Amino acid sequence: MAELSAEPVSRRDRLRADTLREIKQAARQVLVAQGVDGLALRAVAREMGMTAPALYRYFDSREDLVENVVADLYDELVSVLEAARDAVVPAEPGPQLLAVSRAFRAWATTHHAEFGLLFGSPAESVGIATHGEGEGPAQQAARRFGQVFGTLVAQIYLDRGFPIPADDEIEPALQEQLTTWCDTLPVPLPLGVMHVFLSCWIRLYGMVCMEVFGHLRFALEDPQPMFEAELRDLAGLLGAAQEYRPPST
Which Gene3D superfamilies does the UniProt entry name for this protein (predicted)? Predict the structure, then answer.
């Protein structure tokens, strides 16, 4: 028996979807030009050639619009990271993690305003709504972003392992939090794996964040060599030191 075809999308629904995309694109243009503080419905409406009240037919509030823009930006970044990961041949998690880390830095340093919205401000300061039950679009997209890195680190550990602290070597207050986090993972992993993962992520994110916001200029005109030094050290922590190659090769 032939499968039933999907219900056709009405012209009205297509027009609404197109308008939603245009509004979010306009919001991103305002963000890049004016920063987070300038991301107001009135400014987006001017960019669209609409009135501010007309935007409420598509988004309930500024917070709703910002949350959807944030979700789209995370999804764009995830696509960039996945493309970098999938371009690695052979598809080994160590080299893939290095490629993903470099792609993250490249996106961040060429999208300052977007990076600032995603990683430079607390969620409440940019108006991302909190949800009593479940997760909103931004939280779901952020989780997909984190899974790109987390999955590769988990694969490295499950394939060949790397040194991790024993549970009793982890501070009790931290151990409790890591246990709660581990309970949400699709694959059971020792607490020490998540401890190492967090340590690596803090160093990687911290390096990129300091570069994007200009906090390394006191010492470095070109932060890339320092980034590569950090990446080489992180590869060593994950037992992948032999897989590190400078980007030129």
Answer: Tetracycline Repressor, domain 2
Closest to 240 in 3D by CA, of 58, 129, 97 = 97
Q: Where are the beta strands (DSSP E) in the chain?
A: none
Could you count the other beta carbons within 10 Å of the beta carbon of residue 116?
18
Q: Is residue 7 predicted with pLDDT exceeding 70? A: no
DSSP string, 176-206: HHHHHHHTTSSS---HHHHHHHHHHHHHHHH
Backbone angles phi, psi at 19, to 5 degrees: -65, -40
Spatial CA neighbour of 159 closest among 167, 170, 151: 151
Average pLDDT of every residue of the chain: 88
pLDDT digit string, tens, across residues 85-140: 999 999 999 999 999 999 999 999 999 989 988 987 665 544 454 444 567 888 89
Positive or negative torsion for Cα 149, 199, 213, 217: negative
Q: What is the pLDDT of residue 4?
A: 53
pTM above the 0.90 mark?
no
Pairwise CA distance, residues 249 & 77, whole Å: 24
Contact between 151 and 89 (Cβ < 8 Å): no
The percent of the chain in helix, strand and coil, each rounded to the nearest 5, is 70, 0, 30
8 A C-beta contact, residue 240 and residue 156: yes
pLDDT given at position 9: 67
